[in-house]
Amino acid sequence: MATSNGLGLTYCKLAVEAHGGTIEAQSVLGEGTKMVFALPYGGQKINSKQRPEEHQELGFILNEDFEILQNYWEALSTLKVYEVSAVKRILKQLDAEGIKSTWKEELLKAVYQADEAMFDELLNLIKSIAEE
To answer: How far is Cα 15 from Cα 7, in angstroms, rounded to an integer?
Structure first.
């Protein structure tokens, strides 16, 4: 009999969420369980080497949002680009705080595209502005 660590669905969830999709279990007692996932159709991946010039400008982060973003930097900086659910939870908190800067959307794009370089660059942008 084969043994398992029980990690298969965890990896499926990470992969599906990283591509902007959803995954769910549909179970009927006595009949079994069916795993269903859905992925967005027609998504266009941005080449990570083609970064918008605005990333270099302070206008990318609105002045009124900076202090709030700075408060979340520590929590975000402990995460990796593949920790989709954790990043999305923090971004949802930023939404609740009324953040309007495009930085938030760019971070989410980096997560969905598993673009670690962009993810790190966006987090470092908050840190570098704070150090100025």
So the answer is: 13
Q: Please give the DSSP secondary-structure letter assigned to residue 49.
A: T
* β-bridge pairing 22-28 and 32-38: antiparallel
- Cβ neighbors of 28 (< 8 A, separation 6 or more) are none
**Cα 67 to Cα 41, 73, 78, 81, 105, distances in angstroms:** 36, 10, 19, 23, 17
pTM over 0.90? The answer is no
- For residue 92 the two structure tokens come to 């949802």
| Average pLDDT by stretches of 10, the chain with 132 residues | 68 78 85 82 45 41 82 90 91 90 86 86 82 68
